[in-house]
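Quick one, probably user error.
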């Protein structure tokens, strides 16, 4: 067990601190280094490696659910010899490590450094971070204090320690492994086993084809869902059109093709939800065959893009269902038994292994305690400004991506804007800046900042900062609008308060 040495506390000074070494942290570091080269900064990463989510998750078949031309950074285009557009875990990690090496960012990283508290001191105009840092020579930890004027939170939005698992009645009666994909055992033997996967989201759709292929394939996999999810097949490699664009016009044009196509499809779904619902459901029936299609199993209760659309590269999930290697059951769980999972309408679904692909736990800012002059920050009462700051929180930049497109698209824009704002402050000798709400009498309506009906979002609405109904407090989920407002409009607007 690790022991903590609190006898001495080291104090380390930087100009800026970036919490998190995943996709968002790498983007923040690149833009800060490019825009403000004279500033001294450090990336504080709680894990042993860079990569964030992609270093943490390790379940079979793990891949991106966005095309890599938009998931890759604008400053380092995705390039693949195989012309793949869906990235696997390893190709994404290789890409991130290449970016880190190419821009010499590794020298700025402090690994195994968990941020516990972050406090803004108005008198000093600094953030003070209390961290628990592992030593290189053993498992002991020591408390290290970091100070900086600027703070980037690039921690993602969910709990890295555990995923969300509901309370299942009689759970202890099941003698076999019960596994959440967030912590996949490396030595799990599922060859010739019956597996029940609880859940129908992106994780389940990714897992099931992988569990049924290869020399270690399961005997049969049952996807047990409470309600269906919208799914769609998409090519895992470039189409003739996208290959032609790449050949004739290059990487930037290819990236714009995928950006605009994604925006087009999203807006079609929003404008014509009934027609698109029928289109997606008919597509499933076409893929799996009418003999295996049951309307109740494939007709969601929500409109397309009220939750993220599950992408099935080359229709792999549908092919697995069609082959009979996997099946779908729509039902409610009564209890676990010695033989598997008892449901309301289907008696016992036999299982040797149960996988709970039941979602994530929201955990903003890596679970650190944030205070302003030692007073706790009430997160739900705050409003998100332009997608990267919060009202009344000085020199604090938040990394948040799109819900309807690649995470990285928004991250690139907001981290560049944050770095540009810091450059303005440095040039004009401002000590801090913070967004301020409209004056009394112009109160804003508070609405959830993440507009999805997904269970993991709905369970955590009370923990999430709000947005409002008008700019700059509105998150429009629109890349073109954000690109214009963040890159071509002045960052020195009437909402930001600057102080020397």
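Nope, works fine. Designed sequence:
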């Amino acid at each position: 067990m690790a022991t903590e040495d609190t006898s001495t506390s080291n104090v380390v000074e930087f100009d800026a601190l970036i919490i998190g070494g995943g996709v968002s942290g790498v983007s923040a570091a690149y833009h800060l280094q490019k825009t403000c080269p004279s500033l001294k900064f450090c990336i504080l990463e709680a894990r042993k490696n860079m990569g964030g989510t992609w270093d943490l998750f390790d379940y079979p078949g793990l891949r991106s659910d966005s095309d890599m031309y938009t998931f890759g950074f604008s400053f380092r285009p995705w390039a693949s010899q195989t012309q793949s557009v869906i990235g696997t875990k390893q190709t994404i990690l290789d890409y991130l490590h290449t970016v880190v090496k190419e821009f010499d960012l590794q020298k700025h990283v402090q690994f195994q450094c968990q941020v516990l508290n972050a406090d803004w001191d108005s008198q000093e105009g600094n953030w003070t971070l209390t961290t628990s840092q592992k030593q290189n020579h053993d498992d002991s930890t020591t408390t290290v204090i970091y100070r900086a004027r600027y703070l980037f939170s690039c921690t993602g939005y969910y709990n890295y320690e555990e995923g969300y698992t509901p309370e299942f009645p009689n759970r202890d009666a099941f003698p076999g492994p019960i596994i959440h994909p967030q912590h996949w055992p490396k030595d799990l033997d599922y060859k010739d086993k019956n597996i029940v996967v609880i859940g129908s989201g992106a994780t389940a759709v990714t897992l099931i084809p992988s569990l049924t292929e290869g020399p270690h394939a399961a005997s049969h996999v049952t996807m047990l869902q409470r309600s269906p999810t919208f799914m769609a097949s998409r090519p895992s490699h470039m189409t003739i059109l996208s290959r032609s664009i790449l050949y004739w016009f290059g990487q930037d044009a290819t990236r714009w093709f995928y950006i605009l196509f994604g925006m087009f499809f999203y807006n079609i779904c929003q404008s014509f939800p009934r027609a698109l619902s029928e289109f997606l459901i008919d597509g499933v029936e076409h893929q799996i065959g009418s003999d295996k299609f049951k309307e109740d199993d494939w007709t969601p209760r929500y409109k397309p893009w009220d939750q993220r659309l599950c992408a099935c590269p080359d229709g792999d999930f549908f092919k697995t269902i069609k082959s009979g290697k996997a099946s779908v059951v729509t039902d409610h769980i009564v209890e676990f038994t010695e033989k598997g999972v008892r449901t309301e309408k289907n008696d016992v679904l036999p299982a040797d292994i149960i996988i709970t692909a039941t979602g994530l736990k929201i955990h903003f800012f890596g679970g650190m305690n944030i205070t302003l002059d030692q007073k706790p920050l009430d997160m739900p009462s705050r409003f998100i400004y332009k997608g990267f700051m919060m009202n009344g929180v000085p020199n604090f930049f938040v990394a948040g991506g799109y819900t309807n497109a690649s995470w990285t698209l928004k991250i690139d824009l907001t981290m560049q804007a944050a770095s540009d704002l810091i450059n303005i402050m440095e040039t004009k000798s401002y000590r801090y800046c913070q967004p301020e709400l409209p004056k009394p009498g112009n109160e804003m309506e508070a609405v959830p900042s993440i507009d999805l009906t997904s269970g993991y979002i709905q369970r955590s609405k009370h923990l999430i900062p709000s947005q409002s109904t008008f700019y700059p407090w509105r998150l429009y989920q629109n890349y073109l609008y954000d690109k214009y407002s963040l890159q071509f409009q002045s960052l020195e607007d009437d909402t930001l308060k600057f102080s020397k």
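The longest strand covers residues 4-13.
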